[in-house]
Amino acid sequence: MMPRTILFQIKAKESLLPGNFTVYRALPRRELRRVGGFVFLDHFDSENVTPEMFDVPPHPHIGLQTVTYLFDGEILHTDSLDFQQKIEPGAVNWMTAGKGITHSEQVLELQKRMHGIQSWVGLPQNKRKIEPSFEHFDKENLPVVEFENSKIRVLAGNLAEYSSPIPTFQELTYLDFEVQANCKLGIKTNSQHELAVYLCEGSIEIGDQTVERFSLVKLSDNEVDFIFSSPNGARFVLFGGEKLPEPTVIYWNFITDTMGEAKQALIDWEEGKFPEVRKYSKIQVGKD
Q1: Which of 32, 100, 103, 250 is deepest in the core (most CB within 10 A)?
Q2: Which tens digit of pLDDT belongs to each residue from 11-40?
Q3: To 10 degrees, the CA torsion angle through 63, 218, 158, 42?
Q4: What is the rounded distance in angstroms from the CA atom of residue 267 to the CA atom of residue 59?
Q5: In degrees to the nearest 10, what's the CA dihedral of 241, 242, 247, 248?
Q6: How far, in whole angstroms, is CA 222 from its chain's centroid?
Q7: What HEC string does 16-47 produce?
Q8: 191 and 240 in contact (C-beta within 8 Å)?
């Protein structure tokens, strides 16, 4: 088989979270609604982040899983199941919304650098109304595969015989690549998985095309080999998996089968019918 090639590139768009915190949104986009089970991808990278800048208040989700992964910094996750968990570099927070959950994300103290990714995985149709749950996986529990001039952390799915311990409801690929200068590497992927690459730092070359920071590239389907090089080093993720079956509606923070169901969920949120995040408290900066 031929190696996977680039079908097209998309530059992530700047978006503001509460507190005027900038994220770079790569999914969903008009050009690309989802990649495998992944329906959303926000990349953030800011310096000197204060609690005022990053305090995302309680908000709802249904029909999906939120996946938070950091390269630098620390975030506090709090949810309506009463889980409260600090997220640190290399660890993964994996929250299953199912039929409905509410959560918040905060910075508790000054972060010299906040760098990471939050993605959403849409649940298959028969799992969209399961009970909500939350799991945290320390970095020590996630396999790291080392090659010359590179290392790859397996966040979901597998790389060769190395498998992530994170249970999923569909087949996923989610790999974190940390590569040094003059790296050239090829790995085997599942030919049935729809895949994309997102560049967090540096640049790589795939075939005769260069992929730079803040770029998402959709890769060709049905091939096994993923081959790239990086003259100056890079940090990126390879993600995707088996395709979500139709119908799949992505509306605000919800994944549903129909638009009517999604709009009803928004009405339920506005009417206060989602569970409360009891342990959330807004950080009062500068007060005793």
Answers
A1: 103
A2: 999 998 877 899 999 999 999 999 999 999
A3: -50
A4: 13
A5: -10
A6: 23
A7: EECCCEEEEEEECECCECCECCEEEEEEEEEE
A8: no
